[in-house]
Amino acid sequence: MTDRSEIVARVTAVLEGEAKPVAIRGARKVDARGEQSGYWVVSDSRGVIVATGSAAADGTGEETFEHACRTVGIDPASRSGEVIDAGGRILTPGYVDIHAHGAWEKSFDDGPDGIDVARAGHAVHGTTRQVLSLITNPMDVICRNIRTVREKMATRPDILGCHLEGPFLALKRKGAHDPNCLKDPVPELVDRMLDASGADPAVGKIGCIRQITIAPELEHGIGAIKQFASAGVVPAVGHCDADYATAQAGFDAGAGIMTHMFNAMNGLHHREPGPIPAAVEDPRVTIELINDGFHVQNPMVKLGFGLAPHRIAFVTDAMAATDCPDGAYKLGELDVNVIDGHARLVSNGAIAGSTLTLEVAVQRAVNELGFSPVAAVESATLTPARAFGFDRANPVTGTPLGLIAPGYAADLNLLDPADWAAQHVWCAGRQVK
């Protein structure tokens, strides 16, 4: 782990440091607005894109690029590496993962150092922004972990807040969550979580909780969805056994996400439609999908992806074993065994998160499943950003995320055109790889 320790230290220092101007030319741009060759992008010392263009589309493109470079203090004729020649490599927005638990043997529940390690493990694979998912634990532990995320957000731009996957889950659909810690979301518990997050609904102050998964059929489920939504949190329907009408009621109450569609919920049935059709038919809902071929096998990935165009967000649900060898790991206090990259609880064999990265999810979509590059990239960038309003100016990220365009954050991935592997990565103008 020596090399990884050095990587973690470097990535952490970069993300806690200042942005620098970036200039890239000669790329094949792929984002939700389409593909373009001969593309260039320039960002400033705030980590914000100031100009983009295509030499192939505009005969004055080179002159415009050089002018943009000079406005941010970059000499376009410099040979010191200030201007990066992409050489036809793929340029995408940085990936945004709104549901992941860890990587590199660490979980986002493992305190500040654990967050540094796990974030580095995802950042070097092109995930420039991440909502840190916290596992079901005793309530005091959950609140402590919320406060830790809140503190880390103040020091670096890549952490978007936290996602509470529990404890308000259906016992029947708990997956790998500790059944002894599951609870009904009574108002007092919701208040404790919001207080730990720094939220103050009375004055419109939002805290660090971005998302919380709730089974809407719980006694106080619908009420909790309303309570969280009114505090600026985006509740998610998931880990549930809800019927169609109850899921509909959850979305009408303010839930804006479906947690990893198909997993930990009652499935599609022609006489018992369940929660999935309720999410699919509601244009307000962003639908998470784990594209690893294991949580959801390829035919169902293709089916699910086609159900709600522009609303499917690739997520990883990645646990501590991500980008690590097979072996024994932990998910919270529960023992997990990873065989052939697949994580299962030792106690009952339940799937215990994934070892996926968004880099691999996009690679699979394009190279294995035959999705259009634009659609695949959109599902890892603009769609997850839009779930929280991060596709426009907002109080959390300030600058919009999800596109390569003037005014957007300089979150950029340069990918190998052969296998779509991330070769260089920037978050808000900070180069992490």
TrEMBL record:
Gene Ontology molecular-function annotations:
metal ion binding; N-acetylglucosamine-6-phosphate deacetylase activity
State which gene encodes it. nagA
Q: Which residues bind substrate?
A: 176, 263-264, 271, 295, 351-353
UniProt-recorded name of the protein = N-acetylglucosamine-6-phosphate deacetylase
Q: Which domain of life is it from?
A: Bacteria
- Tell me yes or no: is Cytoplasm among this UniProt entry's keywords: no
The record describes how the cofactor is bound as:
Binds 1 divalent metal cation per subunit.
| Names of the cofactor(s) | a divalent metal cation
Keyword NAD listed: no
Location of the active site: 317
GO biological process entries: N-acetylglucosamine catabolic process
Domain Amidohydrolase-related, by residue range, is 90-417
Q: Which residues are noted in the entry as Zn(2+)-binding?
A: 165, 239, 260
Gene3D superfamilies per UniProt = Metal-dependent hydrolases, Urease, subunit C, domain 1
Q: Which UniProt keywords apply?
A: Carbohydrate metabolism, Hydrolase, Metal-binding
- One Pfam family this chain carries? Amidohydro_1
